[in-house]
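[stage:ingest] chain + small molecule (adenosine-5'-diphosphate)
[stage:ingest] validated
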Amino acid sequence: MPENMELSEFKPGTKVAFIGSECYPFIKTGGLGDVMYALPRALAPMGCEVRVFLPCYRCIPEKYRSQMKHRGSFMMDLTQDGRSFFVGIMELELDGLIYDFIENREFFDWGNPYTGLWEDIPKYCYFSKACLAALNYLQWVPDVVHCHDWQAALVPVYLRTRFDGTPVGNARSVLTIHNLRFQGICTIDHLKYWTGLPDFLFDYAVFKVNDREANMFKGGLAYADRVTTVSETYAEEIQTDFYGEGLNGHLSYHREKLHGIVNGIDIDIWNSRTDRLLTAVYGEENVLAAKAVNKKALQERLGLTVDEGKFVVGLISRLTDQKGLDLINAIFEQMINDEIQVVILGTGDPRYENAFRYYESVYPGQVCAYIKYDESLAHQIYAGSDALLVPSLFEPCGLTQLIAMRYGTVPIVRETGGLKDTVAPYNEHTGEGNGFTFDQYRADLLLKTVRYAQQVYTEDRDSWNRMVVRDMEKDVSWGLSAKLYLRLYEELKG
Ligand code: ADP
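[stage:predict] done
[stage:export] tokens:
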């Protein structure tokens, strides 16, 4: 990766429309929401003009909804039988960036953004088409439409079909894979009906999966001018059977246009020097003392035994099998026997929620299972834990290990996807590395790695402390990656 791209290499004024299904602080369920927030903010100071398009979900907090201004509305035809739907454009400026929310009560007035594939497919067919129609309506023609995940994957297809010959049809498209597991698969008839797209697209090269099913992501990948994913390792992995989620052949076929660009984090939000949610703010110079204060506050808040000497391990995650929770379950009793304190923050699959609640009930004072989504507690866990567990089965990029390092918390990760690209393994001989890593998806290897981390923490505190400082010094910002995206946009713009 080129380390020395100068900003002066870029011509100002490249216009990019970001299109995706979630964006912090309006609505966030995972890393996609972070990227939709942080990447435009990193691009704007580089002279890139970005506008962000999102669905106007009912669950967006009132404090943002009340600031939105109506920019216009129109009717748009969508379905195979020519039904028209209302498209409202509600606009909000936040910190100098423009966010356009696509409004339609029929699709977006439900509780959560994702309510089940049967409803989500029509919702995001509508959204993808409505964003392009809104760009024409606003007469804001971008050089590039940058679409994110399956929910926006129809944009490149619409761009080259229904919008060909319209102003926005001149734009080029980038489709970013944040997580290949979710693809938007349904029956061919359902997708044909809701997209109103012509029959020739329901072919194996585009949407078709088998005689019955169609796949929105597959179609978008075929039609996008460039495909990116969120780490170089994941870009390779998804071309294999194990990680390819059934699209490995399709992705290998399109590999010439596939690139890996690793995510960063917003270093203003994740800034231990200014973080108001922490008991003690800190930088590299006072991290050790401040972390002890934050650890005590965390133990008190969560009802854990207050003991500075205990090794506190955190987990902040959607609770799904992707995140390596089976491995954690398998070694839980051993971690308890080793007197490790375990703090879990997450929601998701009831089988994991219940398993962690069970451990909390039998090991009070040693385990806390906080089964909620809670931004402020997340900050306190990042600051107050000694180590953070991320033993994922697969991990396109992963943000929690980046945030952990920024807060001087040592990540324990499996060497997959972005975890492999961002966490250099600790080497006790050279004193290098940022965390503890293991390769194969095996519980015994996770246990060995956790024990090794605990051993360094208890028996070689100086080395541990040096790693804490190294982690805080590591560049996990968007700086370089935003430049790589900008270069990609400029190449496309020609
Ligand atoms: P994914 O996108 O697969 O969920 P990432 O590691 O890319 O995983 O991003 C997860 C983001 O969501 C991080 O910002 C993390 O802090 C946050 N997060 C996950 N679960 C919770 C939770 N229960 N409460 C607060 N923040 C959470």
